[in-house]
Amino acid sequence: MDATKPTMKLAVLTSGGDSAGMNAVVRAVVKAGILKGCETYIVREGYEGLVRGNADDARAEKVHAPSYKEVHITDTTFAHNLRFGDGDLLRDGTSDHPQPGQRTLKGRYIVRVGWDDVRGWFAQGGTLIGTARSAAFRTHEGRLAAAYNLIKEGIDAIAVCGGDGSLTGADVFRAEWPSLVTELKEQGTITEFQAEAYAHLKIVGLVGSIDNDMSLTDLTIGAPTALQRICEAMDNIDSTAFSHSRAFVLEVMGRHCGWLALMAGVSGGADFILLPERPPEEDNWEDSMCKMIHGHREMGKRKTIVIVAEGAHDKNLNPIHAEHVREVLTERLGLDTRVTTLGHTQRGGRPVAWDRILPTLQGVEAVDALLESTPTTPSYMIGVRENKITRVPLMEAVKMTHAVTEAIKEKDFVKAMSLRDPEFCETLEGFHATSVHESQPRLPHHQRMRVAIMHVGAPAGGMNAATRAAVRYCIRQGHKPFAVHNGFPGLLDENVHQLSWLGVDNWMTRGGSELGTNRKLPDIDLGGVAAKFQQFNFHALILIGGFEAFSSLLILEQGRKHYPAFHIPMVHLPATISNNVPMTEFSLGSDTSLNALVDACDAIKQSASASRNRVFVVETQGGKCGYLATMGALAVGACIVYTPERGINLDMLRNDVKYLKKRYSLDIKGRSEGRLVIRNEVASDVYTTEMITKMFKEEGGKLFDSRSASLGHTLQGGIPSPLDRARAVRLSLKCMSFIEHHHDLLLKQPGKSKVAPPESAAVIVIRGSHVKWVPVQDMVPHADMVNRRGKENSWSKTTELVEALVARSQILAKD
Ligand code: ATP
Asked: Which of 47, 292, 404, 452 suits a disulfide with 137, CB 3.0-4.6 Å?
């Protein structure tokens, strides 16, 4: 490839309502674009910036635009792109009044950017390149101007990050593009050569929206942060509601989509939720709401939380306002009720870890999709299914999203729900199963079970939420849930007690392990464990924990040969901050700890930047699994990551020092930043955090200095993240249906002594885009039992991405 010729001239814009994570999209698209040899641009103020273009060539003038060839003879070598930006072009907003030598933005909406322009954009909320709702772009004239401005700048590809409106705009623009080019040619505004060269516009969409309202993707960029803000507010309200025995009605955003309200309801343990796509079925829904809340109060609940989505309505589409709910609760139930409208606080603030990781992965995928685009391929929207980044035809996603709105308008709520992704429907079922207390158990006596729930290993965010969900579900069905405290030693000590519906009420928001957890495996006394299973007459077991829980399940399953008490359904729900359970890409708690890591690293980076030229070596937990260090490094933009899988050796360290020296020497004088290095605490026994820090300090000389910070147990996080809580509920309920299914199969076996098949002892895993059950025996070939981690991992390539996004190889290759 000719290094001086761009493979593509690529622009990125953010449009519609702002959302956290949009800056990470811009950063990823710019960086990935540069790495793939593109010339990169940002468009300020969304589509409005495209319509306005750059003032230095008046739109009305007949422009002698450079020919295609001329446009492309530009230096796109990495060295040029690195130097191109001064790192402050857009960030400090002063560029409309530039210092001598500084670039100006005045009257320029399409701006060339380089590597350092987008450095450190992770931690900032909103969008630094500006967004707008452009009326002009909705018109043919506006889009004609936009097409002209793109061709004038020689741009042939755009990445649009915005909500469904923005992506509809992208789709309209692409569909209209050929006729816009013809029109410009006929007007004589562009040359024939240009018309030919720009006959095809490459467009890709990334969904930036706090509502999570786009079909064909599980999560939109900004939704996790908005949910985090809502849950923080709810957690604060919770204590005051409890203290005064009050009711709170919380209004959250979501005009056509109840995702935020639903997820907040599940994660915050609300009593009642009102969503646009599933309004209450009754005409007099106020009666049923009051009946339910009254029931909860009768049981002894001291607080009541009702969540109302902004677009909530009854089944006849009459809007339901928070104020109306307040009046009903006050007048009918005599509750001291307050309304809290969260409004724009939901949009703001620093992005959570997942709103840095997801936009980064999606931004990189977006550039690949553009590079692979041909006139015959559809424009793609970049989405995500469970843990898999996906490409779906933009038009299809937009059409399906609009279909939901249409179905709601037509009062076809069954259709509206069917068009939402399966996770949405499962979460709604989960909400009903865990929030509504029913007076009559659903199952007949013979199907009811005594279910043991145990936490094994170290605490992780979401363990208590998963337990609460299992307990509530058990009670609704008629099962008896038993807490086994302190793991297997607790069982041997008969530290077992039955859990109640109200007893677990506040467990959603609690970190750590309410049951008490223990690392000891059942083989400390397998016969004793079997005897206790028999004594307590357990019909099923749920183990919540990390690698130890997996190992325990394996031992119990193998113990079936000798102990009939283990011939019951047994499941393992992975929960560990290390995320080291084989075959699963997610464990409960890993999101919480990534957020804790991001919070700590943001603060450390600030300090490192304040002192300029400082490298912080940050030590993380994670056992012999590098997941937390690697994903954390991606989420904070660390420049080096040390994991146990790769280990550390002298050659690596020599190269790392070389990289840091070159990187600091390339910084603009007085503009150096702090940089982060993440080291898993057991990455090497010899090259410790202290030793590496001292070495960097010694080698850095006048260029940079070094300090260390150990995050230790802070990474277990305080309050579990909403994503961990919601995932805990969903997976826990799947565990319950699994054990009910296998219990039924055992009941159908003739005779008294039952034989549980191997598949009835299984682990629930997330792999790619699927949630699956894997029999524990089948996990063994995938497990590295010595290092206590999976043999393969889904994130191994992320280390390369961390290094690519700091241009390690390009910088090392520089003279
Ligand atoms: P949010 O979800 O936050 O509302 P959004 O992207 O849906 O974000 P909109 O205001 O609907 O926000 O759309 C953003 C911009 O996209 C509009 O201001 C307009 O410029 C453009 N746009 C939307 N719909 C169309 C359309 N049908 N044709 C052309 N442009 C459109």
From this structure: 47
